[in-house]
Amino acid sequence: MTKPHLELTGVEMAFDTPKGSFVALDNINLKIKKGEFVSLIGHSGCGKSTVLNIVAGLLQASKGGCILDGHEINAPGPERAVVFQNHALMPWLTVYENVDLAVQQVFRKAMTKQERRSWIHHNLELVNMAHAANKRPGEISGGMAQRVGIARALAMKPSVLLMDEPFGALDALTRAHLQDSLMSIQQDLNNTVIMITHDVDEAVLLSDRIIMMTNGPAAAVGEDLAINLERPRNRVTLADDPTYVHYRQEVLKFLYEKQRKLENIAPHRNKKATGTTSKHSALTAKT
Amino acid sequence: MSTLLNPSSETRLRGGLKVLTDRFSVAELAQASKQLLLPMVGILIFLGVWHLAAPQVNTSLGTFPGPVQVWEQSGQLWQEHLNQRERADKFVTMQEERNARILAEDPNAKVRIRGYPGAPTFLDQVVTSLVTVMAGFLLATAIAVPLGIVLGLNRHLQAAINPLIQIFKPVSPLAWLPLVTMVVSATYVSDDPMFEKSFLTSMITVTLCSLWPTLINTGVGVAAVNPDLLNVSRVLQLSFWTHVRKVVLPSSIPIIFTGLRVSLGIAWMVLIAAEMLAQSPGLGKFVWDEFQNGSSQSLSRIMAAVLAIGFIGFVLDRIMLVIQKKIAWNE
Ligand SMILES: Nc1ncnc2c1ncn2[C@@H]1O[C@H](COP(=O)(O)OP(=O)(O)OP(=O)(O)O)[C@@H](O)[C@H]1O
Ligand SMILES: [Mg+2]
Q1: Which cell locations does it reside in (chain B) (predicted)?
Q2: Which backbone phi and psi does A46 adopt, to 5 degrees?
């Protein structure tokens, strides 16, 4: 605990635009433990993807930095696998070949050809996509492609798994199924996960911590909510669990109040619960 | 079809095609007619107009040839080719027999083997042209694709080279030819040349004129790779070569092929002009020689060559299309 696994310190991100510098992130500080499941939630355009890209090494912070296991992150690498917001599969490769590209790159030396093949099939089965192994991304639905993107990331055995709205494009049933798989996979492998989501239920169900970001520009961490729910978690029994409901309302309150007044987001405790039904719980604002 | 035929003629057509409609659905038939029938109709109309209009045009070499004369001359050209082949075969066997006799008398004697000295026929010229255009096109591809990749990957280089491309792209083959001829004569000096100088001149001219579409398209395709895929490549830490081979090239293959097809079309057009002007063997020279000949059949023979040139160009493009469908992932 004295030495965090992943640490962001004073991260500021300014983009050069034709109209001058645009400060997207201002002084983001985060400490994440090994094996922790962290969700990033916030309104569209607040800078969630930017945070993720900085951890991935795809973007370089203008100020401050990011340290993983004692090493500063300056470049991308396969130990920080990314599930991209829109699957990012190579359209000319089949589902199998897409995963194979990653597996070959990471385990060329560690695995034999046969081992690699069964490892790829294992990962495709995890996301229920083994049946479409020989299809091209153009021949499968967006949700299926997204699942392959997840399989590709998992197949790299990353120590940190970075996911940009991985389930956003999925229907409710598939989403529930994948959330459950992700929970059990993550418990088995104990990898650190940072997941961006717009879905409050998803955030509470999956996360150990929810990082709520303030609206941009110059977004920062608004609230940092620890979710202390027993694992394994069951979505059906949790639905009426008072702690679960409380957490959900905390998140909704943050987002709801933020949406109304941009300035005053002091963590004032108002016991009166905001009357929301589950219908409103999923924010559908997306780019 | 229904837009072309009035209802009564359509029913008559249906009746006439009763046997066919029993086998194929109407949709299939409509499809087939669109693909085969209409082009046939177009060609027939063209032949008819040509046949009627040709006798009206009088030149110093007689009237302009109609389809019938051109068809006859095509047969004639084919026959000439067969005759020439026969003579060449005879020449070779006679030479072999003579050499065998000489060797039988004196096993150490030096025998000479000479090629048949007869003039190339129309078909020989076609083959020469095809070889030249392929050589020029392949050289252009070998230059344009790698260079295009480098330009597409490096924005600074692209900015530096772009004006040069824009200036050289519109240059006509006729302008290049004298320069290429002089440079080839001056630099390609060898006692036992592997290639004819005229071949090199035409080939290099073809290359210079045809590489631009491929170069531009490759550059554009490489620069336009989806940024998400570039990020995947970075996360996987693909080496430069793997990145080019597995991400950049496959991603830009469709647009590269579009460029290659344009390039091949240009290569074929340029080649004919270059051969005419440079007097190097090939279809262009055939046309020019017939023109200089000025016999009563010359126009028919030139017209036959024109049609052959067009048809070969069409076939070349089709071949590229087939290769593209085999290779490109978006087809
Ligand atoms: N390359 C860039 N250049 C300029 N501005 C950028 C760039 N990338 C992101 N931004 C800006 O930074 C802000 C944060 O963008 P980001 O993509 O991180 O938002 P987000 O929270 O992921 O949104 P969403 O939930 O819609 O995906 C936005 O206002 C965006 O316009
Ligand atoms: Mg985003």
Answers
A1: Cell membrane
A2: -80, -20
Domain B122-327 has CATH 1.20.910.10: no
In a domain, residue A115? The reply is: no
| Nearest-CB residue to B237 (from A78, A91, A92) | A78
Instruction: Report yes or no on A108 lying in a domain.
Output: no
Residue A137 lies in a domain: no
Contacts of B156 (CB under 8 A, 6+ apart): none
Q: Three-class SS of residue A277?
A: coil
Q: Are A99 and A53 in contact (CB under 8 A)?
A: no
Q: What residue spans define the domains of chain B?
A: 122-327
Give the domain extent around A19.
6-79+158-286
- The pTM assigned to this predicted structure is 0.80
Number of domains in chain A: 1
User: Which DSSP string corresponds to B221-258?
Assistant: HHHTS-HHHHHHHHHTT--HHHHIIIIIHHHHHHHHHH
Rounded to a whole number of angstroms, the distance from the CA of A247 to the nearest CA of chain B is 34
Residues 61-120 of A with CB under 8 A from B: 75-78, 80-82, 84, 86, 88, 90-93, 101-102, 105-106
Best mutation site among A11, A13, A15, A213 for ligand 1 pocket (most ligand atoms within 8 Å of CB): A15
Which chain A residues are Cβ-neighbours of B238 within 8 angstroms? 105
Which of the 8 DSSP states describes residue B104? H
Distance, CA B235 to ligand 2 centroid (Å)? 17
Q: Flag if A105 and B238 touch (Cβ within 8 Å).
A: yes
Asked whether A284 lines ligand 1 (CB < 6 A), one says no
Instruction: Say which CATH number the domain at A207 has.
Output: 3.40.50.300
- Please, what is the end-to-end C-alpha distance for chain B in angstroms? 28
- Residue A191: inside a domain, yes or no? yes
> What does the pLDDT profile of chain A (287 residues) look like in tens digits?
557 889 999 999 999 999 989 999 998 999 999 999 999 999 888 899 999 999 999 999 999 999 999 899 999 999 999 999 888 999 999 999 999 999 999 999 999 999 999 999 999 998 889 999 999 999 998 888 988 999 999 999 999 999 999 988 788 888 888 899 889 888 888 889 999 998 999 999 999 999 999 887 888 888 899 999 888 888 888 888 999 999 999 999 988 776 554 444 444 444 444 433 333 444 444 33
